[in-house]
# Entry
Amino acid sequence: MAKKKRKSASKSVAADQKNPDSSDRVKNAAKKRKKEQTSDQPSLAQLLKKQRGVAADTPAPPIWKDKLGRAFLTPDDDQNAFDECLKTSFKGFYFDIPSSLPQTIHQTFDLCFEGLERGGLFLYDVVQPGKKKLTQTSVTRTLVGDPGSTYKYLGLRLFSHPWVDVDANGNALHLDKSKQLGSSLERLGYSSRTASALIAMGRVNKDLTDRSMQKLRQHVSAKPVGSADFNLTLVNKMESVSAKRDLKREVACNMGKTSVGWHRDSGLKDFSSIAVYQKQKSQGSNTSKPFGVALRAMDGGAGGPLPSVPALMAPLPSGSLYYMLDDFNHNHEHAVIAGDDGVRYSSTHRVAREGQGTWQYIRDKIQNFQSTESMFDWSVGKVDDPTLSPKKRKQKLVSRLRNQEALLSEIEFEWLRQWFVQGHKHAKLHPYWHDPIKVLIKSFCALEEATVQIIKLLKEALKRGETETEDLCETLFDVLIESFTERNNKRKEWARRYKDPIFRDLAENERPFACPCLDRVAKEESDDLLSPDLELSIRVLRELRSAFVSSDEQGEGMDDAKDDKSKLKKDKKKKTKKSTLTNKEKKKVASNWN
# Structure
């Protein structure tokens, strides 16, 4: 393995020797272009942060006080008061009635909802609000959006279904011929009807983006204005009070039972707009109370409800499209009040933060990490860069190991655990993600094998007594001990989550299932992989660290203590105990932290 690495490294050196300045020129040119682009053309997010701050800084909306002191208003009770309050304290909330929308929008959403329903894509989520008790959502939902996108809320990552065709790498593939649309999704495993519904959702998303941008131009004067370039939609299916008896009551204003309680939508780009199309299928009489959208003003982006402003309850008709523009989601909360009968579908189009939540992000991060592998020869614990000083080489080795362990934890807790906790049924319904999950499992195993090789290297170096001649240092032990400790604590949290009683009431295929690389049984243990329980590995690393530090300090202070054997023995015992601690732990002990 080491020979291959050295060979690939030598090829790179040979290529540089032919044109020694070429690689540096390319790197410098790239850096210069990036710097020019950054300075001349700041992104929308940078402009918004500079000129308008962040979501938490958003001020409270203007106050409208109700002379009668009512807790909430509806247009049926007092149209004038409702309109005045909406205009004053709820600026940013607008809606289009069904007759004002093109018939094609209604038809397309009908096709989408029916296709998603027939495909069985609506599922309940088991979430963990405030990292406390697990609870099941009262609505079923599914996520549709840009290929590889996800949406994390209340401790659960939702994996999206793509709304465009995709290539072999999971990226968007824009086909020219309409008859080919959805063909790649069918090859993945989606039915023809479901694939058509997903493609249609992507198409109507563009219409909602255009309409939202028009509303922003009409109603929002703040500059710069937030984005309405929607990259995903969370599609909800809500049942009525008559069908779902365990819905919670809205207690703040006594509006009735809620399908979705008070909340701000999270995980979105600051100042981004939200567009929601809703469809209600009633099974009762025309006198039945419909589903309603409730709104309440908040005391700024980080504050609680404003008690002086009454809440609003808008019983929007089926086929309405409503908008929460720009900063409305920052200083307002919304809820859905359940109707008396029927079903409500809603498609909530959002601008999610891409950041660390896409398949492309984690895939490229793994590839970039692997692309620099040839610089490190872990068979002897060296950095293959003779231009660096010994100190810089040690720092580079530590940085490499720290990044490796961080990547392992990210793959495990942000991706694999989030996938396998949702059950076989969820996995079967998300064929786009089958290959990415396989890649993540393979990458995790490769990274863990590399970690095992590093531990073996440290053991061998201690046996040979060659720690001073290699790019090794005690910080390598610290990185491993701290990373393993943090990972082991998180594994215990996930183990408790997997065993939560809530899963007993679910169907077998909706319960968490084993991940091949994380939930190995004893007979599957390998010398190239770590035990799932890292306690033993942590103890071994502490012992190795102590031996490593002792080998570096051997002989120091021996002359001063050779006449006092008892003192030497006592000092040695104290040093041994202290050297098992990482430098961070030593500082904690020295500061008397608990």
Remarks:
- The longest strand covers residues 232-239.
- The chain is about 45% helix and 15% strand.
- Residues 390-420 form the longest helix (31 residues).
